[in-house]
Each structure stands twice: as C-alpha cells, then as structure tokens.
Amino acid sequence: MINKIVAYIKFLLSSTNQHGVHSPFVYDLVTKCFYDSTRYDDYAKISTYKDKLLKDQTKINVTELGAGSRILKTNKRIVAKMTKSAGSTTPRAKLLYRLIQHLESRQILELGTSMGIATYSMHLAQKTFDITTIEGCPNISAFTKENFKNYGVDNVELKTGNFKDVLKDLTHNTYDLIYFDGNHQKQATIDYFETLLPTANNNTLFIFDDIYWSKGMTEAWNTIKDHPQVTVSIDTFFWGFVFFRKEQQKEHFIIRI
C-alpha cells in the first residue's frame, strides 16, 4: 500500500492534462473522450446494473486463478461484497463506454469478466458487434452469464477457463480493443500481452487495469509500454493504455483523468 501511495504522489507530480499533449491523436482522445462530460442516457443503465449487484446477497464459491483479492480472504463470497471490492468502478465503466464510442471499436475482448459491470457498459456502447469476455471462476461465470440473460445482453460470448488455455483459440482473431482486467501478476500479464499482440491492428487499443496494483504489475506495465510494437502509451495511474499506430513516433504520456 505504501508503494502505491508513493507511486501516486510521483504520478501527480509528473502528470498533465490536455495542455501538455502535442500529439493530435492523443489530444483528441483526452479532450473528446477522457474529459467528455456528456451525461449519456446509458450511464443510468450502468448505474442500475451495478446498484442491483451491490444489493445482491447471493453467495458464490470462488476459485482463484490469478493474484486473488486483497480484501476478501474467504472462498465463499457474497456478490455485493465482490462488486464493491473487485467490480469495475462506475467512472471506469463510463470511461470504457466513451472509449468504445470514440474509437468506434467493433471486435472487443475482455480478460476478467467478474460481475460483468465493465462488460455490460461495453455492450451498451457497442450492441452491433461481438464482445468476447473470459472468466476463470466457473461459478462467477455462471452467475454473470445468467445476469446478462436477464438484462438482454445478446452480443456477449462469455468463455470460462484459465486465460492461457482459452486464448489459444482466439489468437487468429483481430481485436479493436482488449481490456486486461484479471490475474494481476507480472509474468502472466506480459504473457497475455505477447500472446495477443498478433491480434492487434493499427488502431487497436490495449487497456491494462491497475498498473500500480503491485511492484510486479508496474514492472509488467513498463515492459509492455517499452515494447517496440507499442508506439503510443498513456499512464492514467489506474489504467495503462497502449496503441500500435505505425504512423506515430513512439511517445509516452502521463495524463490525469
């Protein structure tokens, strides 16, 4: 926790807003997406979806395949508590919604479904094309799959299993956006990144959750943003963004959201 506090202080000292951005592409992303204050109608649906989960007292027997929870130590967990501690925050779910609309992302992959808050927001932003999401725990997967059915989410394919195993069948695809939100361990994160590199096109965005979650995750983030195929990287502290735009020189940005 102390390391994260120190990292956040360093982030605040080195970060900027749109006024410190000279790349037209990143400037548009920051001003038209990151800082978009429009109150979209779908935001209310995102809040309703999450609020219902925050009241759900269903108990689920959880199988941990990644780094695990720092807050919930028992394997039998209540949906409401999991939503509060591990579910996507409402501001991040809204940002995902804006990102997909701004970038016009079509084919989307998510690693780490959990309660499906982020998945649901992506569904609202893109109802025409397919979204694939992977959950490691069978019981969480079954619960969220049923929840999607109740909310009429029909363009999401929820796959269950170890990320490494499931990804073997997905590397022939091309994705416009991949959200890495599971197994917050250094080597696993790097491995998933390298496995999915062939699925990226010139406009693809990879988003890495909680890049300062641990020393290992920060090391993984630094390895990823320094990769020769990554041209644009953005550190927002809670998320790390990487793009593969060949027409741009390699540049790193630290942006406050």
Structural description of this entry:
The chain is built from ten helices and ten strands. By secondary structure, it is of the alpha/beta class. It has a single domain (2-43, 87-254), classed as 3-Layer(aba) Sandwich (Rossmann fold). Strand 8 and strand 9 (239-243) form a beta hairpin. The longest helix is centred in the middle third of the chain and has 14 residues, at 90-103.
The spatial strand order of the largest sheet comes to 5-4-3-6-7-9-8-10
CATH topology: Rossmann fold
Percentage of residues in helical conformation = 40-55%
Number of strands: 10
Q: Largest sheet at a glance?
A: 8 strands, mixed
Shape: globular
- Radius of gyration over alpha carbons? 17 Å
| Low-pLDDT stretches | none
Indicate the CATH architecture.
Answer: 3-Layer(aba) Sandwich
The tally of domains stands at 1
- The tally of helices reads 10
SSE topology string: HHHEEHHEHEHEHEHEHEEE
**Class based on secondary structure composition and strand pairing:** alpha/beta
CATH class label = Alpha Beta
How much of the residues is beta strand, in percent?
A: 15-25%
The CATH homologous superfamily is named Vaccinia Virus protein VP39
Distance between the termini: 21 Å
- Report mean pLDDT, rounded to a whole number: 93
